[in-house]
Amino acid sequence: RSVSAAFWEHLRRLGLQDFPCGLGSWNKSRFDAHASPCRGRPGLEAAPSGQEEAMLLSEESPGALVELLRDPHSPWALPPGCSPQDQHLLETAVLAPKLVHGSRIFQLLRSLRIIGKGVEEVDEGLLQFPRLEKLILSTNRISTITSANLPRTLKVGQVLELCCNAVADLQDLCAQPPPGLQHLGLGYNRLCGSAQDKYLTADFWPNLVSLDLSYNSLTDLQALVSQLSSLQKLRILVLQGNPLALIPTYRGFLVDSLPKLCVLDDIQIGPDERHQFHGLATQPEMIRSEARVVVSIGEMKGIPDPSAHQVDSEAPVITYSYCVTYEF
Q1: Mind telling me which PROSITE patterns this protein's record contains (predicted)?
Q2: 255 FRET partner, CA 20 to 30 A, in 63, 148, 159, 265?
């Protein structure tokens, strides 16, 4: 399933052409050939009083139609949890329905948020969004992202969020990466090994300010830091949940190695912490590529007591062996 398919299905569910949106008997006179020159504006202001007076008695005013969308008790109100983007589209469909008809809708959207829709493919349909600045595709089934299908006419400040997918390789994404990207979210994916580190440099992401790599399977802290150090604009980094975060000197090494970093794993880096770990980046021997985990067993039930089966001291000794498996 592609992003485009999920997008059009979502639009159908919104009902942009149905009452109180779209064109119909409830607002037809506002958009006919003799309508005011102000018709078609995407703004959310109510129609001029003179225009409202000229409307047919069977029609509703723009303000009344918008209120049907905003009132939580209205049968046409959006259900809880809908995005501001959905609200904006519906209100635009009331005030300027022609702007959300067909391909014109691509000109309106600066943010596209498709979460938990089973999307597997980032298709070339995204190239129809010339003003897109934020693309959020979290909690889907995306394993690869073809960068050629991402709009390149994007303003600085673009966000690409791919949290909770199945991304294991960044090669296709980095073939033609969006040059203005400021936030890249790859948390809860399948990135592993040092083979992906080479794609996390300024050669691919020169404007990156925020990077989320949490809860993957990254293990080589030194190799990763050597690549991240080229990201001169990086200020926010999230690496928690990776095996490398278990290294005892993990935080100190990162704080000293990336002096421009402001926030690490959602914790702000202060001057005292900078001073505390000063010089640690020049001591790679302090980084151990191993971690110790201590497991404490509070109570175990259902294990037979061997002493209960002993009849006397001359009876054969019975030995029991048990295997306990821990899954991390």
Answers
A1: LRR (PS51450)
A2: 159
pLDDT interval class at 137 (50, 70, 90): very high
What CATH topology corresponds to 111-285?
3.80.10
Model pLDDT for residues 193-243, shown as the tens digit of each residue: 888 999 999 999 999 999 999 999 999 999 999 999 999 999 999 999 999
The HSE-up count of residue 256 (CA atoms within 13 Å, CB side) is 18
158-196 per-position pLDDT tens digit: 899 999 999 999 999 999 998 889 999 999 999 998 889
- To the question of pTM greater than 0.85 for the whole model, the response is no
